Amino acid sequence: MKTTKHPRELSDAEAAAIVDEFDAADDYVVIGSDALAELRAAVAARREAESRIEAAALRAHRDGASWGVIGAQLGMTRQGARQRFERLTTS
User: Fold this and answer.
1) What is the largest CA-CA distance in the chain?
2) Taking phi first (over 0 means left), then psi (-120 to 50 degrees means alpha), and beta for anything else, what does residue 63 get?
3) Angstrom distance (rounded) from CA 85 to CA 6
4) How far apart are CA 44 and CA 63, in angstroms?
5) How confident is the model over 12-60, as pLDDT tens digits?
6) Who contacts 67 (Cβ-Cβ below 8 Å, separation ≥6)?
7) Which of 38, 60, 76, 87 could make an SS bond with 80 (beta carbons 3.0 to 4.6 A apart)?
8) CA distances for 91 relative to 24, 52, 58, 85, 87, angstroms
9) pTM
10) Residue 12 CB coordination number (10 Å)
11) How far apart are CA 82 and CA 51, in angstroms?
């Protein structure tokens, strides 16, 4: 399965389909199923963390925090926070 999406933009179903296709292939070397399972778990944790960060940033903005304050909490500039999260305020 080929995709042009960035890994962060894959849905869980798309990622699972890629993993299933990879698992079904017989022309690769298995590195260690424990290592791959840990990698998949880490990716899932990152997705959850990104979702929590988005929700918290939006809540802070709705509660009146400026993009500068939100950015400072995330270790980024005001512009970086605005560019990352402002699109979510209209949805």
Assistant:
1) 55
2) alpha
3) 18
4) 29
5) 788 778 777 877 776 666 666 788 888 889 999 999 999 999 999 999 9
6) 61, 78, 79, 81, 82, 85, 86
7) 76
8) 39, 17, 11, 11, 7
9) 0.62
10) 10
11) 16
